[in-house]
Amino acid sequence: MNIANKLTISRIVLAFICIGFILKNSFSSILTAFIIFILASITDFLDGFLARRKNLISDLGKLLDPIADKILIIGVFCAFLELGVVNAWMISVIMLREFIVTGLRLYSLNKGIVLEAKKLGKHKTFSQVLGIFVIFLTLILSKIFPSNEIVAFFYQTFIPLLMWYIVIITLFSGVYYFWVNRHTIRTF
Q1: pTM of the model
Q2: pLDDT confidence band for 185 (50 / 70 / 90)
C-alpha cells in the first residue's frame, strides 16, 4: 500500500462524503461538498503523478484508480439527480458508458493488455468535471440568490445544454474507444 494507492482510496472515501453533503442540500453542505469534490479531484491528479514520478505503479493502483474516478463522478451526478438538477436518462447513459469501458479496461488488464485512455476520453472526463463544477456553482448561487434570473437561466437552459454536450461526448468517446481497440477486443 503505497502513497499513490492511499490517495486513490482517500478519493473513494471523499466521494461518499461529498455525496452525503450534496444530499443535505443546504448552502453550507453544498459549499462543503464542492470543496470536498475539489480535494478529491486533486487526489486524482496526485496519485497518478506520484505513481509515475516515484515508480509506484502497482496492479492495485491500476485497478482502483478508474474505479475511484467512476465512484466520484457517477456518485456526484447521481446526487445531482436526486436534487432534480439533471435527468435520469442522461446519468444512465454516462453510467453505462463508464461501466462498459472500465469493465473492458479491467478485463484486458487482467489479460496483461493495457487499453489506454484516448484523447477523446480525456476530453469526456474534462467535460464531466466541468459540468459538475458548473452545477455546484449554480447550486451555491441558487442558495444565495434564490430568485435571480441568471441563476434561473443556468438551471433551465445552460445546465440542460451542458448535460447534452456531456452525454454526446461520453457516447462518442465510448464508440471511439471500442473502434480504436477493436482488434485487441477481438482477441478476447
Answers
A1: 0.90
A2: confident
- Please provide the DSSP assignment of 126-176 as one string: HHHHHHHHHHHHHHHHHHH-TT-HHHHHIIIIIHHHHHHHHHHHHHHHHHH
Q: CA-CA distances (angstroms) from residue 92 to 98, 122, 142?
A: 10, 20, 26
Q: Long-range contacts: 119-124, Cβ < 8 Å, 24+?
A: 120/169, 120/172, 120/173, 120/176, 120/177, 121/173, 121/176, 121/177, 123/169, 123/173, 124/166, 124/169, 124/170, 124/173
User: Do 14 and 40 form a contact (C-beta atoms < 8 A)?
Assistant: yes
What CATH architecture does domain 3-186 belong to? Up-down Bundle (1.20)
Helix axes 159-180, 119-144, angle to 10 degrees: 160
| Interatomic CA distance for residues 142 and 148, integer angstroms | 8
Q: What are the tens digits of pLDDT across the range 122-162? A: 899 899 999 999 999 999 999 999 999 999 999 999 999 99
The CB density around residue 49, as the number of other CB atoms within 10 Å, is 12
- Residue 188 is placed in which grid cell? 478476447
Which tens digit of pLDDT belongs to each residue from 35-78?
999 999 999 888 888 878 888 777 777 778 888 999 999 999 99
Domain ranges of the chain: 3-186
